[in-house]
Amino acid sequence: MNGSALNQMKLDEAMAPIEKQDGGAISMSQALGMACALAISCFISFAVIIHILTRAYFVSRDDDLLGGMWAVAATIFVYRESYQQSVRAALSRMAGTLLSFVLCLAYLLIFPFHVWGMAALIGIGTIALTLLGRSEDIITTGITTAVVMVVAGISPQHAWIQPILRLVDTCVGVGVGIASARISLSIASRSNPQPSGA
User: 125 in helix, strand or coil?
Assistant: First the structure.
């Protein structure tokens, strides 16, 4: 087999449909479309949060960047292959973030950051979610609590504001992720219409 035939075979393999976990397949162009939509969504989330937070005089440049990163993480978390999956992921993300918001705000209004306080809040969140039958949200709540508390330890002057900022970041990221999933999946369905007999 000569070099050009080998290169063509590699190209054909790269352009072949990519297997999905549910047994179906998506084409390289669909994967590229999803990647572009997610990348643009992440850019929008970051830009929106940076624009919002720069208007808050008490928020530092570090908080701007952290807020942008947190919004991007929320966008990535909720952007899925179907709109229904995105909505379920968004509800899970918001549930976990809201519980973390309540726990961290209550703690930071009374106490300064301490590693034992962070650990206690993670434990309380785990108990609450387990009893509510929402154990799938433990990871989100725990990660959010850890980030909020550690950032509160880094910036102790306005520690109580951290839960509020992270809630805003999450709302923006989730909103952008849901909107992007809706728009990109709508475009994809129009560009790849199903046969009438399907």
Answer: helix
What is the greatest pairwise CA distance in the chain? 73
Let me know the angle formed at the C-alpha of 138 by 149 and 116, rounded to the nearest 5 degrees.
35
Residue 15 lies in a domain: no
Number of domains present in the structure of the chain: 1
Report the predicted TM-score, pTM, of the whole model to 2 decimal places.
Answer: 0.76
| 126 in Cβ contact with 138 (< 8 Å) | yes
Query: Which residue range is the domain that position 167 belongs to?
Result: 30-189
Q: What angle do CA 171, 185, 17 make, to 5 degrees?
A: 125
Query: Mind listing the pLDDT tens digit for each residue in 53-64?
Result: 667 656 677 778
Q: Answer whether residue 25 is part of any domain.
A: no
Cα gap 125→184, rounded to integer Å:
35
| Position 3 in a domain | no
Residue 57: exposure state from Cβ atoms within 10 A (0-12, 13-18, ≥19):
exposed
Cβ atoms of 42 and 75 closer than 8 Å: yes
Q: Which tens digits make up the pLDDT trace of 68-104?
A: 999 999 999 999 878 888 999 999 999 999 999 999 9
